[in-house]
Amino acid sequence: MHWLPLALLTALCLALYNFFIKLAANHVSAAAGAVVLQLVAAALGAVWLVKLKLQGQPLNITGKGVLLAALAGLGVGLAEILTFVVFQRGVNSSVGTPVIVGGSVLLTAVLGLAVLREGLTMPQAGGLILIVAGIVLLARGH
User: Fold this and answer.
1) What whole-number distance in Å separates Cα of residue 142 and Cα of residue 138?
2) Residue of 12, 14, 33 whose CA lies nearest to 24
3) Distance between CA 20 and CA 25 in Å, rounded?
4) Cα 61 to chain center, whole Å?
5) Which of 54, 100, 104, 141 is the most buried (most CB within 10 A)?
6) What is the pLDDT of residues 124-139, one digit of tens each?
7) Strand, helix or coil at 55?
8) DSSP assignment, residue 62?
9) Which secondary structure element, helix H or strand E, spans residue 107, and what is its range?
């Protein structure tokens, strides 16, 4: 399968993730919400891992891979708690989510350029500038 449909499906899943955090934010503390979210995500990951193992799929696990995945988990765990806190402060999902997601896209691109030495075309640079403009416009009213 081509990467684009998978990326769009991932975007849908992230949209649902942010949408349901917004709905839950005033009904559960940020820490409790993040723990529930992580437990469900861990259970889903465990089911997927067992499924792959039962199918005889090779499971590539290295120390470096585990460390990097743990660091990603640290980042997403903090992001989840902070997302709950942002939405508990009354920010609309139509503003908070694009600022959070757009900001993460922008910062990831900067890390890719600075740390991984990835290239950037003019249209891609233009897209990043539009993300900055979008964040500025969204944040102005709040």
Assistant:
1) 8
2) 33
3) 8
4) 22
5) 100
6) 999 999 999 999 999 8
7) coil
8) -
9) helix 93-114
Q: pTM of the full predicted structure?
A: 0.86
Which helix (H) or strand (E) element contains residue 7? helix 3-24
Tally of CB atoms within 10 A around 21: 23
User: Which candidate, 90, 91, 97, places its Cα nearest to that of 134?
Assistant: 97
Contacts by residues 81-85 (CB-CB < 8 Å, ≥ 24 positions apart): 81/30, 81/31, 81/34, 82/30, 83/18, 83/21, 84/21, 84/24, 84/25, 84/28, 84/29, 84/30, 84/33, 84/34, 85/30
Provide the residue ranges of all domains of the chain, joining segments of one domain with +: 1-90, 91-142
pLDDT for 142 beyond 80: no
For residue 4 the two structure tokens come to 């684009």
Two structure tokens written together for 85: 């806190």
Q: Which two tokens stand for residue 134?
A: 């979008």
